[in-house]
């Protein structure tokens, strides 16, 4: 498949690049050091319409494709992954609701995601159900016009600030994927307790949380699942949406790697040792060339996977390949770029050590790289 950005996409990318470099870059260290959410960045992103890039215009969004959306996210990730994550998350939940929610819910909620008035966490992982995601035990039991939710979630990003939680729950007695659906739980629901997880390695401008549900009652109209959730393929269906989320992890990793690479390249042009610039040393030049090759490969894979989804032909295997290649590449690249700065790269006055910590998250989230390799192997062997 031939892939080339059109003039509108180039314009969109360049505008995001300008914003990232001129506004977000210098503030990025603060969110990490103080462990605070980049509130002012979110406000700006909402004003500029970045929080509704992939949302249908009938709900106030820009109606753009995933390629366009992630071009913006990539540019922001070059300087600040915590801020890039805001655009990513704010575009994901509306897509799930737009695909699986009833029209009344879409019309009521999605415009508020675009404006930033609402945020939604995705509460899927449980202590005993991480990679084995179909093994969740949180239950949603129908009582009259309500569902009663009991169970526990862990690692819920933005769980401490989201107005709504998209909770994966077991609606029926069956085991495995069948009977798993999703339901929106408002943050102030009686019986819901949220506890922030401490000592996080990176992306400290976003928090992960445990959620505890003790007989939490939610109106039945909050269900976000096609058909009868008791007997649904609720677990399987949203996975098509998660194809994009998965590649999104790859694109964010790509952005961080490119950001680190650009810093290293610029430093190598001014730092000399043994009477020679680093950029003139053959061993280091090849290191940079090798990194460039890997970055180019990741970019091609990620945008090919996103273009396939935009074209209505999602390729789950390609999405997994892109996610693994880009995130593994980014782990190596950020470390090697940090090395290029010698001792200076080890200190927080430069962003390298933050980039190394931040990017670590992306081999785990969106389905670990090991589970992606299982999916790729299943594709190779037919099961
Ligand atoms: C920063 C962060 C943010 C997150 N945000 C969210 C969120 O918003 N919402 C949410 O629901 N979850 C979230 N998660 C959870 C994340 O999705 C899980 O951590 C991930 O799915 C892995 O589950 P686990 O941690 O229980 O590891 P486990 O599943 O216990 O895996 C442990 C190790 O074994 C490997 N492994 C497991 N099974 C296999 C297998 N069959 N073959 C080979 N290797 C295997 C894994 O790859 C991993 O290396 C987040 C996690 C992190 C770190």
From TrEMBL:
Residues passing through the membrane, by range: none
EC number per UniProt: 3.13.1.4
Cofactors required: FAD
Domain Acyl-CoA dehydrogenase/oxidase C-terminal: 233-380
Domain Acyl-CoA dehydrogenase/oxidase N-terminal: 7-117
GO MF entries: acyl-CoA dehydrogenase activity; flavin adenine dinucleotide binding; hydrolase activity
Pfam families noted in UniProt: Acyl-CoA_dh_1, Acyl-CoA_dh_M, Acyl-CoA_dh_N
InterPro entries in UniProt: Acyl-CoA_Oxase/DH_mid-dom (IPR006091), Acyl-CoA_Oxase/DH_mid-dom_sf (IPR046373), AcylCo_DH-like_C (IPR036250), AcylCo_DH/oxidase_C (IPR009075), AcylCoA_DH/ox_N (IPR013786), AcylCoA_DH/ox_N_sf (IPR037069), AcylCoA_DH/oxidase_NM_dom_sf (IPR009100)
Domain Acyl-CoA oxidase/dehydrogenase middle residue range list: 122-216
Catalytic activity of the protein: 3-sulfinopropanoyl-CoA + H2O = propanoyl-CoA + sulfite + H(+)
Keywords carried by this UniProt record: FAD, Flavoprotein, Hydrolase, Oxidoreductase
Membership in a protein family: Belongs to the acyl-CoA dehydrogenase family.
Protein name (database record): 3-sulfinopropanoyl-CoA desulfinase
Native source species: Extensimonas vulgaris
């Amino acid at each position: 498949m031939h892939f080339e950005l059109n003039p509108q996409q180039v314009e969109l990318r360049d505008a995001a690049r300008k914003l990232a470099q001129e506004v977000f870059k210098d503030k990025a260290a603060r969110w990490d050091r103080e462990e605070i959410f980049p509130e002012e960045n979110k406000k700006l992103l909402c004003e500029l319409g970045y929080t509704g890039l992939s949302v249908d215009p009938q709900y106030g969004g820009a109606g753009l494709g995933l390629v366009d959306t992630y071009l913006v996210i990539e540019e922001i990730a070059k300087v600040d992954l915590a801020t890039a994550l805001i655009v990513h998350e704010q575009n994901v939940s509306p897509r799930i609701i737009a695909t699986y929610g009833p029209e009344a819910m879409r019309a009521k909620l999605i415009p508020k995601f675009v404006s930033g008035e609402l945020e939604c966490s995705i509460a899927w992982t449980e202590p005993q159900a991480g990679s084995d995601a179909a093994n969740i035990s949180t239950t949603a039991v129908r009582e009259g016009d309500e569902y009663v939710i009991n169970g526990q979630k862990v690692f819920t990003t933005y769980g401490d600030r989201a107005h709504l939680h998209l909770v994966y729950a077991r609606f029926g007695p069956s085991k495995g994927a069948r009977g798993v659906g999703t339901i929106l739980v408002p943050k102030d629901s009686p019986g819901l307790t949220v506890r922030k997880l401490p000592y996080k390695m990176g992306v400290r401008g976003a928090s992960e949380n445990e959620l505890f549900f003790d007989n939490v009652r939610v109106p039945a109209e909050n269900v976000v699942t096609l058909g009868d959730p008791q007997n649904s393929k609720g677990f399987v269906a949203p996975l098509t949406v998660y194809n994009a989320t998965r590649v999104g992890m790859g694109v964010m990793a790509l952005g961080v790697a490119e950001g680190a690479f650009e810093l290293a390249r610029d430093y190598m042009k001014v730092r000399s040792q043994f009477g020679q610039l680093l950029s003139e040393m053959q061993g280091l030049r090849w290191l940079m060339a090798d990194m460039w090759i890997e970055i180019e490969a990741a970019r091609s894979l990620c945008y090919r996977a996103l273009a396939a989804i935009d074209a209505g032909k999602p390729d789950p295997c390609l999405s997994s390949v892109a996610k693994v290649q880009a995130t593994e590449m980014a782990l190596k690249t950020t470390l090697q770029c940090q090395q290029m700065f010698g001792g200076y790269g080890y200190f927080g006055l430069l962003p390298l050590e933050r980039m190394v910590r931040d990017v670590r998250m992306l081999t785990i989230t969106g389905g670990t790289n090991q589970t992606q390799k299982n999916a790729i192997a299943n594709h190779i062997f037919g099961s």
